[in-house]
Design brief:
By secondary structure, this protein is an alpha/beta fold. The protein has 3 domains: 103 residues, 2-Layer Sandwich (Nucleotidyltransferase, domain 5); 88 residues; 157 residues, no CATH class. The protein has 15 helices and 7 strands. It is globular. InterPro entries: Transp_IS110-like_N, Transpos_IS110, Transposase_20.
Length: 398
């Protein structure tokens, strides 16, 4: 089988094919379609290596459909393949190094996300952009009002426009923040639409509903967890998953040191999921009833090491709990969490009544979320009704 590598750049793709340890063909093109004569359906089968990047999944699917064996390379271990050796790194050399590695074998592979989980991740990215933009605008408006000598009452982000409209502000101040307020009025219903789309995608993933039975975990966190992990059984234990998510301490104990040196967490892997798990940990510590074992365990760490360490430790443990629930097909069980080891939860028999109760609690979360979506969609319809009718449409109505 042919040994081929592609270096996927933003504007160009570098193609390299090797045979017998020597380069036999190179080409630089603008798009993958330009390589159809070399890699198209009518070409001979090849083993093609590409580095994991934004375009990797789409290119992977296209090459697979063309009949090739596609190897998506783990970029965190790309140096061991010779990429960037001796300080020389460009697209042509990277493609050549990858092609030689294909011929040698032993390429470290990255996981290729399943198509439906990709759709969930893309929808989460849209929702995240909208939510972060809304939060930024709210912060900016509050800052401008403070600079002008006005302070608004504390409120949720969703209720900010209501509080702002009820505040006694001078006309010139309202005019100053008017463009941001207009943008906020459009963002809230768009977020509701994104939530509804995400809800629809999650209906095809029963595991997401099970994960929401855990404390502090709602639909967004559960969906993000599933879209990143993809398959629970590809991790052998909970610590391996925590390392994949960057929630384990960094280590520097080489050089024959007798004492293990641990530092801050590595922060490798998906940053968004790591943030969401940290937010869930904060929620458990703030709002969960005191008898939950996860909260009690984190409180004990809080007393010894401080709140920040406790939150990160709880986020790491929560990732293991969610992984074990997914692996074993169970709902959250506080008793199991109380006796769980650092290696993950052991499978315990759960009564039908216990699972039913947990799923009932998850349905309460779902109804609360649906009310929020309906409220946002109602704002969309209200905005549409209040929008002025154009002259052409007004003429057609008469």
């Amino acid at each position: 089988m042919r040994s081929v590598a592609l270096d996927l750049g933003v504007h160009e793709i570098s193609f390299c094919e090797v045979a017998g340890g020597a380069v036999v063909l190179r080409r630089t093109v603008r798009s993958l379609d330009s390589l159809e004569d070399l890699l198209g359906p009518s070409s001979s089968p090849a083993r093609v290596a590409i580095e994991a990047c934004r375009e990797a999944w789409a290119v992977h699917d296209t090459l697979r459909n063309w009949g090739h064996d596609v190897l998506v390379v783990d970029t965190t271990r790309a140096r061991q393949l010779g990429i960037g050796q001796h300080g020389r790194k460009n697209d042509r050399l990277d493609a050549e190094a990858l092609a030689h590695a294909v011929e040698r074998g032993g390429i470290p592979l990255a996981h290729v996300l399943s198509p439906h989980r990709r759709a969930i991740r893309h929808q989460l990215a849209v929702r995240r952009a909208l939510v972060e933009t809304r939060a930024q605008y709210v912060t900016t408006v509050r800052g401008i009002l403070r600079a002008c000598g006005h302070k608004l009452a504390r409120c949720t982000t969703e209720g900010f426009l209501t509080v702002l409209s009820a505040a006694a502000l001078p006309a010139e101040t309202r005019q100053l923040v008017g463009p941001l307020v207009t943008a906020l009025e459009m963002l809230t219903p768009q977020i509701a639409l994104a939530d509804a789309a995400l809800e629809q995608l999650c209906t095809h993933e029963p595991v997401i509903v099970r994960l929401t039975t855990a404390p502090g975990v709602g639909l967004v966190i559960a969906a993000a967890f599933v879209s990143v992990v993809d398959e629970a059984k590809r991790f052998h234990h909970a610590h391996q998953l925590a390392s994949y998510l960057g929630l384990v301490p960094s280590e520097d104990t080489s050089g024959g040191r007798n004492k293990q040196r641990l530092g801050a967490i590595t922060k490798q892997g998906n940053a968004y999921l790591r943030v969401l798990l940290t937010q869930a940990a904060h929620t458990i510590l703030r709002h969960k009833s005191g008898d939950d074992p996860l909260r009690q365990w984190a409180n004990a760490i809080d007393e010894r090491r401080g709140r920040h360490v406790a939150v990160v430790a709880l986020a790491r443990r929560l990732s293991g709990v969610l992984w074990a629930m997914w692996r074993d097909g169970t709902v959250y069980d506080a008793q199991s969490a109380a006796v769980a080891s650092a290696k993950g939860l052991r499978l315990q028999a759960q009564s039908i009544e216990q699972q039913a109760q947990s799923m009932k609690e998850a349905s309460v979360k779902a109804r609360r979320r649906q009310r929020s979506i309906d409220k946002g969609l109602g704002a969309t319809r209200a905005t549409a009704r209040s929008r002025p009718v154009s002259t052409s449409r007004r003429a057609s109505m008469h």
